[in-house]
Amino acid sequence: MEWVRTEIDGVPVFWSEHEGEITAGLVFRVGHADERLARRGITHLVEHLALHQAGRRHEESNGTVDATLTSFLTHGGPAHVVAFFAALCAALRELPVHRIAAENQLLRTEADGRGRDIQASLAIWRYGAASYGLSGYEEFGVGGHTPEEVLAWARQWFTSGNAALWLIGGPPPPGLRLELPPGPRIPPPEPTSALRRTPAYFTASINGVAASSVVERSTAATAYTDLLQRRLFDTLRTAEGISYSQTAAYDRRDADMAEIVAFADGLASVHSRLVRGFTDVIDWLAEVPPRDSEVAELIELRRAPLLDPRIRAGLPVGAAHAELFGAEPPTIASVEAELATLCAEDIQDVGISVRDNLLLMVPEGHLPGDRYVAAPHGSTGTVQGEVLLHIDSAQPGEQKPFGPGNQGRPRLCVGEEGVSLINGLEFVTVRFAECAAMLAWPDGARHLIGLDGLHLRVEPSLWKYGAALPELIDRGVPPEVVVPRPPREEHEIPRPAKSSSWSRLRARLKRH
Which pTM was predicted? Predict the structure, then answer.
């Protein structure tokens, strides 16, 4: 027996037999990808509030939030499991909103110890500042959520129709209740895209090479991931000796698609060889099918865990997740059937998909081959409106409109539609209707983030007549995307160079 499906209070429940204490998880189909950037963190806040009210003890219970799922986990005897979920559901029905300030502080502390990882950068460049790209951003909403907003979010997402429970260690204990408010099952969000073409690349300060690709969920894709890691090891470490650590991971995104993320480290002195070697492995797997002996090894690698009692006992977890995604739950038989028909061409097909959909992250100053296009770091158009010149490039008394005479001078254009920063032939535009968030400081600084992930930072002190900028921008940005920021220290506010026209002239005379 792999797992059994039943139902409690309208919530689907999946359980399996296993020796020892019960391990259980109540999962909801909501995560970072369902939020808006300016309010990012509200799901995490609900998770914290509910666990506090449920009498959280770290060694017995915990909670997690990822892009699409929020899970409440616990382990213990039957009485503990019954009591925990009764208290948890009661908390979700009536959150302790008086704890918001305290939990916000804990969320900030948690974020302070969490560095930004490579996968977060890849997500932002692929999806922008919406849907699955939101996992890469700071929780900008922390500190700004009202009690009413938090309660409304819980009522919308933390319902019996949007939940599933899994248990490892036996059937549901007698007396287990899951009394949640009713509500519909909500499907995962549609993915957004910040890429105009693939395969694409972007540069970053990274001691290695990383990549991500989106593929259809399948056993062939998991086998490809195993093969990719092997080939990266054989090529970059064993054969060339230019990389110590190589990884490749497969992770579900929604009901139909998954992401494959790979990384290989390397010293600055070998970055050119590392980029070339990494992309050569990707091309190799797309152009040449794996050998029959490799396929046989990959099949055995995937089949071996199916014989492990602990793995078999954990199948209810995947079944609960599949239920929330609207996908077919996994079974030993279904995995065995896919492994039995897996062939080299299936794995090569995944390789072709990975290559064509690839987003590559390479060290600064090192570019991949011609087939890769640069990921967008600028906009395709500008807005019309008031034009301001950068102080360091503006002459005394000069304030000219946009035109051929100003092509080489940095300028800021603020209009009814949005803001454009123009520097020569490069420009970044954030339109107000497509602004995901705007960070606002009391001194007038504004940091606009577009849904496409492009950023535009405005420091009024650096622009001629810049004192008018906050009002010009604020009247166009929707209030719901504004994120107030705390006051800055005086030394944190940038100032223009103090060199005047006369001092510049005097400096030139001294040089002569």
Answer: 0.90
Per the structure block, which two tokens stand in for 8?
């409690």
Q: Is the dihedral of CA 422, 120, 260, 255 positive or negative?
A: negative
List the alpha helices (DSSP H) in 288-408: 292-303, 309-313, 315-325, 332-341, 344-357
The phi, psi pair for 319, rounded to 5°, reads -65, -40
Alpha-carbon gap, residue 75 to 89, rounded angstroms: 16
Q: For residue 216, how many C-alpha atoms fall within 13 Å in the half-sphere facing its CB?
A: 9
| Residue 229 near residue 262 (C-beta atoms within 8 A) | yes
CA dist 311 and 332 (Å) reads 10
Cβ atoms of 139 and 40 closer than 8 Å = yes
Buried b (16+ CB within 10 A) or exposed e, 401-412: ebeeebeebbbb
What is the distance between the alpha carbons of residues 231 and 214, in angstroms, rounded to a whole number? 19
42-53 and 100-112 are packed helices; what angle lies between their axes, rounded to 10 degrees? Answer: 120
Q: Which two tokens stand for residue 353?
A: 């998909």
What DSSP letter does each residue of 180-225 carry, written as one string?
-------PPPPPP---SSSSEEEEES-SEEEEEEEEE-SHHHHHHH
Give the mean model confidence (pLDDT) for residues 34-46: 97
Distant-in-sequence, close-in-space partners of 502: CB < 8 Å, separation ≥ 6: none
Edge-to-edge strand list for the sheet holding 246-252: 246-252, 257-265, 208-216, 359-363, 200-204, 373-374
| Helix spans in 422-500 (H) | 469-474
Q: Do 215 and 222 touch, CB atoms closer than 8 A?
A: no
Give the pLDDT band (50/70/90) at residue 406.
very low
CB of 428 within 8 A of CB of 382? no
pLDDT tens-place string over residues 76-105: 999 999 999 999 999 999 999 999 999 999
Give 41's DSSP letter. Answer: T
Write down how long the chain is. Answer: 512
The helix or strand, by DSSP H or E, that contains position 272, with its residue range, turns out to be helix 271-287
